[in-house]
Amino acid sequence: MDLVLHVWRQRGPAAPGGFVRYVPEGVSPDMSFLEVLDLLNEQLIGRHEEPIAFDHDCREGICGACGMVINGRPHGPRRATTACQLHMRHFPNDAEIWVEPWRARAFPVVKDLVVDRRAFDRLIQAGGFISVRVGSAPEANATLVPRRDAELAMDAAQCIGCGACVAACPNASAMLFVAAKVAHLGLLPQGQPEREARVLTMVEAMDAAGFGPCSNHGECMAACPKEIRIDFIARLNRDYLRALVRHEPPKGDVQPTEG
Amino acid sequence: MPGLDAGVPEGALETKWTRHRSQVGLVAPANKPRHSLIVVGSGLAGASGAASLAELGYHVACFCFQDSPRRAHSIAAQGGINAAKNYQNDGDSVFRLFYDTLKGGDFRSREANVYRLAELSANIIDQCTAQGVPFAREYGGLLANRSFGGVQVSRTFYARGQTGQQLLLGAYQSLARQIGQGTVTMHARHEMLDLVVIDGAARGIVVRDLVTGELSRHVADAVILATGGYSNIYYLSTNAKGCNVTAIWRAHRRGAAFANPCFTQIHPTCIPPTGHHQAKLTLMSESLRNDGRIWVPKRAGDHRPPQEIPEGDRDYYLERLYPSYGNLVPRDLASRRAKDVCDEGRGVGPAGHGVYLDFHDAIARHGERFIAERYGNLFEMYERITGENPYHTPMRIYPAPHYTMGGLWVDYNLMSTVPGLFVIGEANFSDHGANRLGASALMQGLADGYFILPYAVGDYLAHARLAAVDDAHTAFRDVEREVGERVAQLLAARGQRSADHFHRDLGRVMWDRCGMSRNATGLTEAIEQVRTLRQEFWRDVYVGGDGRDFNQALEHAGRVADFLELAELMCHDALDREESCGCHFREEHQTPDGEAARDDEHFSYVAAWEFAGVGVPPRLRKEPLTFQEVHPSQRSYK
Q1: Per residue in B321-378, pLDDT tens?
Q2: In a designed cystine with B32, which of A131, B4, B57, B440 is the match (CB 3.0 to 4.6 A)?
Q3: CB-based contact B76 A34, cutoff 8 Å
C-alpha cells in the first residue's frame, strides 16, 4: 500500500511540536496500524534518524497502553477497536493519515505520541476500590449476585484505562472513566459499604486532576474501544447526588475509612 | 556442586503449609514500618504482593516499566482461574486439582508447592470476589464455572474472555488503595537494570527512569521480583511487546540460580502469522477448545475451502488420538500434534502453518447466541485480525510461545539462592513443572502474592541480621557505575542494524532449534549461532540518541542483549536434559507412538543453573524431586 503519514513529533513536554511527513515503504493491508509505525521506525533507524515514540504493549487491545488520535479520532476510524487492533485493510490505498497524541491538560505529552496518564491512576487511588483485607474475605458464594447485575458490572469493568474518552471529549472530561469504575463497584453488593464515599472522592479527585466537566456530547462513548455506554454517566450523576444528600462529610475528609 | 534443598516442611502433604504457617517467624506490628521492601513488577503477583505487604504495615516501593501498574501483561490472560471449590459437585477436590497440576506438569514440579497452590486456590476466589471482580454468574446468583484443558472437572472461574484483566484490576485497585494511603511508593516507567547484593543478601536495585534516562539506587531489606516470563526470547510470542527477562537475568548474574530455563510452553491456539512484518502473535483462549473441534484435511495438499471438504475427508486428529480427552488434551500435546500434521503437509492457510478450530457443530447444537455469549469477544478479535468471520468459516490456529515454566529457582518460601531475594509468579519456576495447565498461571500469581509472600518475607525478616546500609554504600555505587557503562556501550556501538533486527534473528534460531521439538545436533548448533549473533550484536547494533531522555530503542536493545545471554543457557539446559517431558520434547527420546519418553531414573530433578560468565558453560545444581504422595506415572490422555 502507498501511504503518507503525518506524525506529531515533539521532543519533550516543554518543546514545541509539529507534524512531520513520512512515506513508509512496504505497508501491507494485513498489518496493524502499530506494525506500520514499527516498519517506519525500522526505516528511520536504518537512516540513523530518531524513531517515533509511542506507547504500546499487549497489542491485543486489552492493556490500554496504546493510544493515538488517527485522522482526528482516538484509536482511528473503526468502532470498538484500539490502535493496535486497527488493520490497514480498512484504509484505502493512497491514504493520507494524520497521527497525533491525546490532547488534554491532565495528560501532558512525554514525547511524540506518548502522554503521561498517571492522572487516571490518581483517580483510582482516590477511591476506585473495595477495601478488603487479605485473609478476611468471606466464602465467595455466601453473597449471591443477580446475573443481570454481574453482567452490567462487567460491562463497566471492561474499561482498559486508555484515555480515548478524555481525548475525544471537547472538555477533556474523565467522566466516562470515573463512571465506569463507580458503576462497576457500585452495582455489586461487595461495593455498597463504600459506595457514597467512593463517588465523592473520585469526583473530587477528577476535578483536582485538571479534567474538564461533562456536558453530554457523547463523544467519549463513540471513541471508547470497549463501547462503555454513557448510561453509566447518568448512573454516576445519580450516585453523586444521592451521596451528597446522604453522606455529608466535612469537606476534605471523605477518605474511605480503613477496613 | 552441592544439591539444592528447598526446605520443604516435614509431615503429611496436606498438613505442611498449615504447620509451616504457624511456625514461621513474625515481625511485630510496631517493627513492620521500619522495614523497606522492593517489589519489581505489578502484574498479578507483584500487585497482589505489594498490596498485601503494605497492608501489613511494611514500607513498600513498587516498580514497573509500563506507564501504569494496571498494564502489566497479566491483563491479557483470557480464559480463567482454577480453584478447587467443587461448586459443580462433579468430584473436584484439593487433591484432584493438585494431582491434575502435577500430572499436567509431567511430574517435574515440586510436590509440596503444587499441593499448597491447590489448597490456596479457594481463598483466591473468595478474596477476588470480595474485591468486586465480576466473575461470571448463574441465573441464581451463584458463581459459574467452565472446564479447561487437561482435566475432567469444571473448576475454572472466569469473567467473559477477560479474566486476567478483571483479576489484575482487582489487585491493581488494592495496590492503588495502598498508594493512596502512602504505604506504597509507586515508580511507573522505571526499569530495574540490576540487583545489589551486600554481605550475600539482596539489599536493593538500580533502576533507570525511562522518561529522563536517570539511574537511581533503591535500598531495601528484601527484594521481590515479580517480573513475569521470557517467551519474547522467540521474538514472536503471545506476550506483550515489553515482556523481558532483564530483571531475573540480572539477578541470575548476581548469584540467583535459574531453574529449568528450557521449559517453555508453546500454546496451541494462536492466530497464525501472516508475514514478515508481524510484531507479535495473538492468543485465542484455550476455552475455545471446549466447543471448537480441531481438524485438518486427511490428504496432504488438499487446498479446498473448509466448507467444501466433506466430513469423510477430515481428520479430527485429537479426537482420534486421545479419545477420552479429545480436543481438551494439555497444551503441550495439542501443540505438538498440530506441528506433526503441518509437517506432514496437511496444514491449512496461506503458508500451511495452521489447523482448523471449527465451531460449526457447536453452533448447530447450541445456537449462535450461546456461542456469542461465551466467546463473543474472542470471535470479534479473531475477525478484526484476520478479516474472517469465525461464525461461518472455521478459525485457523497455530502454536505460539506463550509461557515459561522455567524461571529463578526458589525454595518453599519462594526465596531464591540469594537470601532476601524472593521471586513470585511466572518469574519463578516452582509450580508448573514441564507444562502448565490452562487457568493455573493466574492462580499461582495470586497465591504467591496474596497468601504466601507475606509469611515468607516476615519469616526472613524475623531471622535475618541485616546491617544498616544506605545508597552511598560502595556496592550501590559500583553497580550503578556498571549499569551506566552498559548503557553507554549500547549507545556507543553505532552500527548498522537495529536491536529489533537481532531480536528477530535470535527468535528464529530459538524457534527452530529450541522450540516445540529439540535434538542434540540442533541445540549444539544453536549455541554456536547464538554466540555469533551476540558478538555481532555488540559490534553492529545501532541504538541512537544519548540515553538522557525517553528512548524506546535503548530499552529494547538492553532487553535483547539479555535475551542473547539467556538463549545460550536455554540451549544448554535442553541439551543436558536427555529425556522428553511435558513441553520439552527431545526427538531422541520418544515412545513408539511419538509420545514423550520421560526418564525418572536419571532426570527426576530440577536443573538449577549458576552463572559462570558470558559464553562460559553454566554450573548445574540439582534439586532432586521426591514424591511423597503420588507415584509419577506415564502421562496418558488417551
Answers
A1: 999 999 999 889 999 999 999 999 999 998 899 999 999 999 999 999 999 988 888 8
A2: B57
A3: no
Radius of gyration of chain B (CA): 24
A137 touches chain B (CB under 8 A): yes
Contact B73 A63 (CB under 8 A): yes
Within an 8 Å CB–CB cutoff, is residue A110 touching chain B? yes
- Which pLDDT tens digit goes with each residue over B513-535? 999 999 999 999 999 999 999 99
Nearest to B159 among A118, A145, A154 (CB): A154
b/e code B344-378 from CB counts within 10 Å (16+ = b): eebbbbeebbbbbbbbbebbeeeeeeebeebbebb
Of B126, B188, B500, Cβ closest to residue A118: B188
Q: Note the pLDDT tens digit of each residue in A88-135.
A: 999 999 999 999 999 999 999 999 999 999 999 999 999 999 999 999
Judge: B160–A154 Cβ closer than 8 Å, yes or no: yes
pTM of the model: 0.97
Residues of A (200-259) whose Cβ lies below 8 Å from B: none
DSSP assignment of B234-296 = GSSSSS-TT--SHHHHHHHHTT--EE-TT-EEEEEEEPPP-STT-----B--GGGGGT-EEEE
Residue A258 has pLDDT above 80, yes or no: no
In a domain, residue A233? The reply is: yes
Domain, as residue range, for A235: 118-246
Is residue A145 less than 8 Å (CB to CB) from chain B?
yes
